[in-house]
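From: lab user (bench 3)
To: helpdesk
Subject: output format question, protein + fe (ii) ion

Hello, I'm new to running complex predictions and I'm not sure whether the block I got back is the full result or only part of it. Here's what I submitted:
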Amino acid sequence: MTAASSEKLDTALPTGQYPAIEAILRETLGVEFQLWPAPADGDVPAHEDREFFERAAQPGIDHVIARKGADQWLVVLPLSGASHPPLLASAVVRTSDPDLLARLLQQVRKQIQLQRQVQLLSGECNQLISQVATDSEKLTFLHRVAEHLSLADLSLDINQLAQTIFPQLREQLHAEAVVLVSAGRDRNSCLVGRPVVSEGHNRLGDRVCSRLVEQFRDAAVRQPVVHNGCQNAPEFHDIRGLRSFILVPMLRSQGVCAWVLAINRLCPQCDAPECDVPADSPRHLSCHEFGANEASLLQLTAAILAAHAANIDLFRDKEQLLLEIVRALVNAVEAKDHYTFGHSERVGMYARHLGAALGLKAKVCQRIYLAGLLHDVGKIAVHDNLLKNANSLNDDEFVDIRRHSEEGWNILYGLDALDDVLVGVLHHHERWDGRGYPDGLREDTIPLDARILAVADAYDAMTSDRPYRQALPQAKAEEILRRGAGVQWDPHVVATFLRIMPDMLLMRKSYQPRRPPARRGYAMLRGMLDGQETGHGAPCTTNPP
Ligand SMILES: [Fe+2]
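Helpdesk reply: Thanks, we reran it on our side. This is the complete output you should expect:
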């Protein structure tokens, strides 16, 4: 088909505005079409073909074909779609077969509909890709956090953990700063504390952060609080530099334990507060505003941190309970001989400090401390008379008293929590020259924990009164250690012990044995328990609904 002389109408859209539609029309019918905005009621362009345009704009009309001359036909085609406003396409087509023209127009409409569906699907696909990319970033971040937490030492407190996680969190949120605000407590309420961890450039300052938390804390317990455009909002007029923020609480079973604030969204493209994207474009808003994705990520991170904080508390409670049980055991042993009261605690303290001076990790030093507390627990199985008369024992009685290191093993064996102190307890009487007991181990074959305990044990025994002798003078004890280095004890351990002797002396001087509380304290404890049972002293925090 060929184009006839086309009529120029005043309100036709410029060519190239809808290139895909124009191309389909051109390629199928072989002529250039003009596109018009579909007229609203009574708003049809005033030209000679007005009646055909009006007809084509009626609902349910597929196309209009009108004879314009010999083998010349005016074609008007209504087009509607989500990707463009309602349009009319018109052209004058030269053909001797108007039926063929009508069939071609139907094909064109189908093709345009298909093209429209492809565009819609393509748009949805892009949205999905963008969502998948966002979710993938979020998952990667959460995976990193989980990995970090699984490797983190439980001795780290929640602030230290936040310090390690917040740099990645800030990057993920494209926030100028991420701040952890502490929560305090009094008897009846939860108090807003101050920022304790701050990552990035917190231009608001501590006081304003606490004020934001105070203002929005109740709403944040229900759902994350997200504010954008703060620079134009009257309620924030006195806060300079605040453009946007998210606030979420860290919730524990007993209430809020802290809050997390993300401050001022940065442009993800240029990572700056201002960028070259026009301020009135939708992209500009998405660049500079926190949305549901950021709020959900911050909420998830706060929940993970809160769960970890709960784990830390449980772990510490467990450790404390273990320590108290160990001390109770030690008290039972030392109650047999008041001369040795405090001996095990001091051996543990000396050994822990000695371990640190030897460069051992804190966790290992704590293990050695526990082993020090328990090193003589096997004496519970030794007759009291033998313990009190160690200077006049015959050979059989010596054999009997030497059983205590193996008895200690027997008592503690099978307690999972004390597995790692067993070697120290069993071998603390081995000697460097191999003449110790119970196994006659020598030199480096003796576990290091036991070599450390042996020195600490000997020093405390020498410098304490015993029923059969007075405490040795300090100089004498040091001389014995020096002479025994490489014979009875590990020479390197003895040298280190002597090097840090001033610390040991200070420790010995300031040592106060733990005594059971007076009965008055017990009465107070009963009072507290009664208070809890009757509901006094209820939790002070705001709980989530
Ligand atoms: Fe011992």
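A quick orientation on your result: The mean pLDDT is 83. Let us know if anything else is unclear.
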